[in-house]
Amino acid sequence: MRLLFYIARRIAWLFFVIFIVVTITFILSHVVPSNPALIWAGPHATKQEIEKAIKELGLDKPLIVQYLIYWKNFLTGNWGVSIHTRRPVIEDIKTYLPATMELAFFAMFVGTTLGVLLGLISGVKYNSVIDHVCRIVSLEFIAVPMFWLGIMLQLVLAYKLHLLPLTGRYDPELAAATGFHTITGFVLLDSLLEGNIPMFIDALKHILLPGLTLATGPFAIVLRVTRASVLEVLGRDYVRHALSYGLPRKVIMFKYVLRNALSPILTVIGLEFGYVLSGNFVVEEVFEWPGLGRYVFESILNSDYPAILGSVTVIAIIYVIVNLIVDIVYALVNPKVRY
Amino acid sequence: MILKICDLRVYYFLRDKVVRAIDKIDLEVPEGVVFGIVGESGSGKSTLAHAIIRLIPPPGRIVSGSIFFRDLDLVKLSEKELNKIRGNRITMIPQDPISSFNPTVRIGDQLLDVAIHKLGLSRREAAKIIIEKLKLVRMPSPEINMRKYPHELSGGMLQRAAIAMALLPDPDLIIADEPTTALDVTIQAAILKLIRDLVDDLKKTVILITHNMGIVAETCDKIAVMYAGQIVELGDVYDMLSEPLHPYTRALIMAVPRADREIERLEPLVGEPPSLSDIPRGCRFHPRCRLAKPICKREEPPLRYLDSKRAVRCWLYV
């Protein structure tokens, strides 16, 4: 019961945050120095055409009315038309978002799984060789810029050794040959559900380099936080008590140590998700990954403000939802949080 | 004898010094008694408890000696063999029950961990035995409280659960490390009664570690008094309390307020125990001893048996 109340409270909070996000994007759209009507009308527009654009965009109405219209449009999915693709923004987002999410989830999954496991080992084997190696590697990963790492991986693994594809999301020829057709937009998921194994392997090969590049950030941070948290928990009385009962090592490590070390780890996982979403902008550019990052990049170059605002809103909402999930897991793991 | 400790030394190797937490301890614990180990904080009594199940945190180490549990030398066993003793034949009752339970797991599940992993029981059998043991330690409504998290129960209830856990594997020896220190005074008596019952009704052997002479008088059959990592006196509790021999034991008893006798002032023990990394030459107690003789400053007294039960480490009795 308490848990349900807690979740209800967190969801109410989620709606509040989304309200703020939409309001902020509205304000942003009105303080940007470039005149949207001018861009909308094009470079050689006449005065009349510009005035027509102002009317079409509703820029002549009072601010509060514009704000309410903005909300109505937001809720009905009418997010405007992208200036550079000339398609509805919401359609563009539907096209590009799954690729980005696939890459982000892949990176988060790989980064946090490895980070937590190696962090746990690092903490338990404090001051051992493996601990030192983990610390140095994680430090390197934090220090190295992502675009450089991406290019280096491409250069060595793809260009020189031909082990993995250089760019892209899958091989279109293979997709045509195997009759692959995506439903959800998640290529890995769809190919697996269809039982199209060659396609799945191909998609996995494609996602490996951008995914690993993107995973370095969460991997390094999660590893360090896990190690510190595990070290702290190892000194607790309940771990000592469990040891005095000679419980199996696996039980002590996961149920007694890791479970209690999890709170700060979950917090950084939530925060790192934001890092991965913004890291996407760079990685998608390097690996020509057809995702939202490249779309936003193009939109910024074209001052395409409906596209930018729509994408930013979606990314913000995803970030908030991920953190809501983190909060719920947090409460599942730690019964004291539920109060 | 259920436990026989010979010449045990546990040292902590710090960067610039060696802390001799336990130094040359000889001890025999007979079966079916509450054996009290008494001492001030820092006397090494908790280290002794952890040494028995070999859970000395690094940089500490058992340097020499043997700990015979029945006919097994625990010092020589491998970790794997030792884990068949820990939580099966020797169990612990912790000092602070509130911090000794995993805060993220229900009490019942923590008891289940012991029953399933240590006794190899099925979930159903384990649950049955757990309820049985919880009733034995007089836990109110065990079925409901099993489903609670540690922070939802009081210290006294948690200590009952911890004692139930200690009883689960039907052990031979239970080590209780200051089991009432973290509890309210009103609950202390109930918990001590429970520990006493383990010996009287269930024929277990309990090693009770405490700094409280009142607890000793109430609960123990035999006691050993520790000072600066050594045993200074041991014997039956009645003899020790009615006629303490070692000046340190005397000082400890004099410092307890009594309701049954007119005492004008309590006699405090002056000074502090020595740092275990800088132990005085000769008798370790001599800087605080009123009766110190020249020899006390030069040579360490041996632990000398006066009869089969009573031993004292003091030059006054040599």
Short description:
The complex is a heterodimer of chains A (339) and B (318). Chain A has 339 residues and is an all-alpha fold.
CATH class of the largest domain in chain B reads Alpha Beta
Mean pLDDT reading of chain A: 89
Low-confidence stretches of chain A: none
Radius of gyration of chain A: 24 Å
Explain what you see.
The complex is a heterodimer of chains A (339) and B (318). Chain A is mainly α and 339 residues long. Chain A folds into two domains: 2-76, no CATH class; 93-332, Orthogonal Bundle (MetI-like fold), CATH 1.10.3720.10. Chain A has helices at 2-31, 36-41, 47-56, 63-76, 89-124, 129-143, 146-160, 172-177, 187-193, 197-234, 237-244, 249-286, 292-301, 305-333. In chain A, helix 5 (89-124) runs antiparallel to helix 12. Chain A is globular, with a radius of gyration of 24 Å. By secondary structure, chain B is an alpha/beta fold. Chain B has two domains: 3-89 and 171-317, Rossmann fold (3-Layer(aba) Sandwich); 93-170, no CATH class. Helices cover 33% and strands 23% of the residues of chain B. Chain B has helices spanning 45-52, 79-85, 97-100, 107-119, 123-136, 142-145, 155-167, 185-200, 213-219, 237-242, 247-254, 294-298; strands at residues 3-13, 18-29, 34-38, 60-69, 72-73, 90-93, 173-177, 205-210, 222-227, 230-236, 304-305, 311-312. In chain B, the strands form two sheets. Chain B has an eight-stranded mixed β-sheet, with helices on both faces. Chain B is globular. The two termini of chain B are 27 Å apart. Chain A binds chain B through residues 236-238, 240-248, 251, 255-256, 259-260, 333-336, and chain B through 50, 53, 55, 82-88, 91-92, 94-96, 99-105, 113-114, 117-118, 149, 151, 165.
